[in-house]
Amino acid sequence: MRVTVKYLAQLKHAAGIASEEIDLEPGCTLGKLLANLAARGPAGISGFLSPALLVFVGEDLVHTDTERLLCDGDVITLLPPMAGGMEVPPLTDDERGRYQWQLWVKDFGDTGQRRLKASSVLVSRCGGVGGMVAYALAAAGVGRLVLAHAGDLRLDDLNRQLLMSHAGIGRPRLPQAARKLNDLNPSVEVVQVDENISAENVTRLVGQVDAVACCAPLFRERLLMNAAAVAQGKALVDCAMYEMEIQLTTVLPGQSPCLACLYPEEPPGWRRDFPVFGAVAATVGSLGAMEIIKIIAGLGETLAGKMLVGDLRDMSFRRVSIARRPQCRVCCSDAR
What we know:
Blueprint lengths: L1 E6 L1 H7 L3 E5 L6 H11 L13 E4 L2 E2 L13 E5 L13 H6 L1 H4 L5 H10 L1 E5 L3 H13 L3 E5 L24 H12 L4 E5 L8 H5 L4 E4 L4 H14 L2 E8 L2 E7 L7 H4 L15 H20 L8 E6 L4 E6 L15
Parallel strand pairs: 1-5, 6-7, 6-9, 7-8, 9-10
Antiparallel strand pairs: 1-2, 3-4, 3-5, 10-11, 11-12, 12-13
Helix pairs in contact: 6-7, 6-11
């Protein structure tokens, strides 16, 4: 029988190929396939074949089920932790002290913290939602934050942009955000990009990081980040809000629907200005930061293939399934 193995993210670069077809004996298990790949697979991948590797058969996450029988035509996808590979730096004594409480979290510990330290995340933009995402990621110990946001602070930003201050009105947002983040955690590298996401810069910016926090208010920017993240095999967390409602979803390229499956075209008439409380922005920003942390650390279950919908007016939350659109020109190869 024949199966297809797909390599994602850093594993794709280590393997030098995106996928390959492999002939197996009938009755082959997932564990035997992984052992076979470690022994004879493309050079450079053996270091990724660890318990932290996420393994999918079709749409099912099965990385712990090594006795699972494979079938002819199965597609096996290998997704490594999003932290620059398995070579992650050790923690200093000061870092162990700073992050002590989260080091106690089950299934996170020292390894998860080291992955955060080695990781880089693009946050666009760093206003009400993105500012909270960046603040929570800095507190958690993500090693490098790339903030993309043009323009100066306005008075009407201050009901929700918590990295800013009244004294900063009329001044560029990014230096204020970077200063606030480094006041909280001096060990975090903050890269300031005084630009909003555009067709000219999106590939370059997404290419600098392990994961993307999409917090822009405009669909044009969100769809550009989605397309670049899918093309480069980078995880993306999309955070959105309106009035007292929030929406959150995660895109894992090759494993889940993407944002273009939901919005094939930019919705007409959408504006940057809309009603919202700062507490609503902070809520979806905190949830988005937690999704990023889970993706990088290999912790828990993400919202890939799901959307979290919340209405803070009555504090109701639900998860809805998202289907891949067969003709999606971003994530479905047959439609490209």
